[in-house]
Specification:
about 400 residues; alpha+beta; globular; binds magnesium ion
Length: about 400
């Protein structure tokens, strides 16, 4: 019979890293969350070679004391929870104390941090999870976390990475998610020295701030005529900008879902959205930035190692509420007009709800008729997408 052995720390580390660090974007997501948890109002991100060579995040948050620096990359080291019951009241993004541990075990990491900007900062350098150097550096405000040569010691894992273009798209998406969910915070993203996004802290109320970011991210065509939805019942609050039925997209990639400001996948929310459009949709997709807020005890984020997939205690209740909130908002936005009998007036898609000679709801013309392509960066997934959207 095979002998039972306790795995070596080295092996355990790499296994743990496999769960948290799937690709460069998973590193970036964790680093941004740490900056947000540290109360940063400004986060600057630099990426080189699709994150394989470098991911650097500089925040102006609370920073760490020197004694905490080496602890931060240890397993289960966290300043965010201490007893199991805390899990039910999590308000921070992180809580497992696993991110820096996992990231540092498959990369070369350097963390510079200062809890007091008037005093020298400290740094640690680690390789494969071992600290190889530490010391003092000039003062900074907050923390710089630099992750180099991701998967340098687990070459098999880097083979699973997709093309640079695809990994970059994931990195960009990760910043877009953070920017939508944190409109009071400035984000700067540079990829290989090229500025991709420069989101300044937005002004105004929730919807104004969100719309400003949504416009920057989705572009002019897609964000045109979006409908704002804001409803709440005793358990759930939903707020979103969502495409009007006359301006749907060819793909489902312009959808940003959040629960308590965390980007999530939830079949329930997605199905609720799609069923709110019902027949209006054809085979096209709404663009949306949708926030659900509810008490942490009403859902479980713990079911997914990267905290993306969530499950609500009352999936049916959430489904019904979101569906009816969006359906009502769409209904309100349908403007009754007299449709003429000329075929040119038929909507391009969703023609099944068009019928001649009747007063029917109609919508603004479908997207993509603008002749001017917006200036989008080479790297932006927006570039190819807006092109495909305007060629439809
Ligand atoms: P978690 O976020 O789950 O606590 P991490 O491994 O991501 O675990 O981070 C470990 C700890 O290191 C955090 O709890 C926090 O105290 C500290 N830390 C990490 N990044 C930062 C940062 N940018 N600013 C301040 N503290 C940080
Ligand atoms: Mg964290």
């Amino acid at each position: 019979m095979a002998e039972i052995k306790i795995l070596k720390e080295e092996v355990v580390k790499k296994i743990a890293a496999g769960e948290v660090v799937e690709r460069p974007a998973s590193v970036l997501k964790e680093l941004i969350e740490n900056s947000l948890d540290a109360g940063a109002t400004k986060i600057e991100i630099e990426v080189e070679k699709a994150g394989r060579r470098l991911i650097r995040v500089y925040d102006n948050g609370s920073g760490m004391q020197f004694k905490d620096l080496p602890l931060s990359i240890k397993r289960h080291s966290t300043s965010k929870i201490s007893v199991f019951e805390d899990l039910e009241r999590i308000k921070t993004f992180g809580f497992r104390g696993e991110a820096l541990y996992s990231i540092s075990s498959v990369s070369k990491i350097r963390i510079v941090s200062s809890a007091n900007e008037n005093e020298p900062a400290h740094y640690i350098k680690g390789e494969g999870g071992k600290i190889i150097e530490s010391g003092k550096t000039p003062p900074i405000k907050g923390t710089i976390t630099e992750v180099r040569d991701l998967f340098f010691n687990t070459p098999a894992r880097s083979k699973f990475l997709k093309s640079d273009q695809s990994e970059r798209a994931h990195l960009i998406r990760c910043v877009e998610d953070a920017a939508c969910a944190n409109t009071d915070i400035s984000f700067l993203l540079k990829i290989d020295g090229v500025e991709i996004y420069d989101f300044r802290a937005a002004r105004g109320d929730f919807s104004q701030k969100l719309l400003e970011r949504a416009k920057a991210i989705l572009g002019k065509n897609i964000s045109r005529d979006m409908i704002f939805v804001s409803e709440e019942n005793k358990d759930v609050k939903v707020r979103c900008f969502i495409s009007s039925p006359g301006n749907l997209c060819a793909t489902a990639m312009n959808q940003y879902y959040f629960v308590n400001r965390r980007p999530v996948h939830s079949k329930t929310i997605r199905q609720a959205v799609y069923s709110a459009y019902e027949r209006l949709r054809g085979n096209r997709h709404p663009a949306l930035v949708l926030f659900v807020e509810t008490e942490p005890e009403n859902f479980d984020v713990n079911i997914h190692p990267q905290k993306k997939e969530i499950k609500f205690l009352d999936e049916t209740g959430v489904f019904r509420f979101i569906k009816s909130s969006i359906a009502r908002a769409i209904e309100k936005n349908l403007r009754p007009v007299k449709i003429l009998e000329t075929p040119e007036n038929a909507p391009e898609e969703g023609g099944h709800f068009f019928s001649k000679d009747k007063i029917l709801p109609t919508f603004p013309p479908p997207a993509g008729h603008s002749s001017v392509m917006e200036q989008v960066s080479l790297f932006s997934p927006r570039a190819s997408q807006e092109r495909s959207d305007s060629s439809k």
